[in-house]
Amino acid sequence: MMRLSTLLILFTCASTATAERIFTSGFETNNFTATEWAQVASCTIETASGTPHSGSYYARCVTTTGGVRNQNWDTADKTTGSYYYGFYIRIAALPSVSDIKILQTLSSASVEALSILVDADGSIDLRNTVTGTTRAGSATLSINVWYRFDVTYTLSDTVGVLDLEIYDDSGSLVEDFSAITGEDTLATNVRTSIHIGLLTADGQLDLDIDDVRINNEAGTFETGLPGAGKIAFVEPTSDNTVTWTKTGANCSATTNTDCVDDEPGVPDDDSGYNASSATAGDEDRLNKTALPAEVPSDADMVLVHVLGRTGGGGTTGNRTSRLLLWDDAGAQTLGATSSNCDSAAGTWLLSQSPHDLVFDLSTRSKATVDDADFDLGYENVSAHACRTTALWANVEWTEAPAAPSCAQSIALLGVGCR
Known about the structure:
The chain is an all-beta fold.
């Protein structure tokens, strides 16, 4: 990936995000269903009981039937296309029996298509549940070790594809499954949501989950497997330029930021939010927190995924809003227009794909992401009032590749080292 020496071509006019990252979560909001997750059963968000893969939080599921399901990031079921899942799993205790399901995709009628299972010896199976085809793994996973699962899922009733690769946290390939190809992988229709956790009642498993990402195949970047990645969290820290009105008992300070910086934690919704006027184009531009020290100065930046929680003002009728981002040159990027604020008072909705905002950071460094001009915000698009109660962003990054050793330099370049 490019570094500081890369020439950046920056535009001062507003642009629109074109990524096909449809889900990014490292559990850094420290809650489930009020932000990035639609459903949770018998799982908790942890920080002190073990080491997260990255950031401060991860999910732990210790049960016979439970897990987490991400928000359904598309409003319609899908019958075509490819989806690419990347997530990290750590097993603290193996099950007493085999075929314990740890991932599945479901149709809107709850018909299963793709599933990944763990056996009592720590080996993994990939299964097309539509046809029953199974690829049994031979490698056994160690307990208390983070592993990355890279999953390819192409939807088709004739030429579908299921594929799985497993890596350890150093990036070494642990197992490369023989892909299931040319099969029916379409359980009537499929939603882009996935279930991760302990999804079989036959045996208990102690399972940790972190850094979950989903891509689609369209767009201009993040159109394949997410690969290695860690997720940092940023949120508003102070006002830049604001036009919305502070509202609610929990907006105790003098800034609009105070009304929308509820994360990590549970958004306070009606108790503290910012409200726009009925003038179209009202914007709040908020300075954000710096990236945490965990992110090294030479990290390869991947993307920033901006999310918000929006609600209506009591009446409906064509009320729209969108998320905003300003980059290190002050250029503005617009999220897609959302109808989330076209709802009754007290109804709060997450900005789901395609109405969230994903911005490519591959030409940026940690320093440019931390630049004072790199800000988050929102605006009402229609000439109607809207409300925002929470705003945050997940920033994906990876460690920079290690510099080649002296011996490698001699072998590759034919020159000596100093």
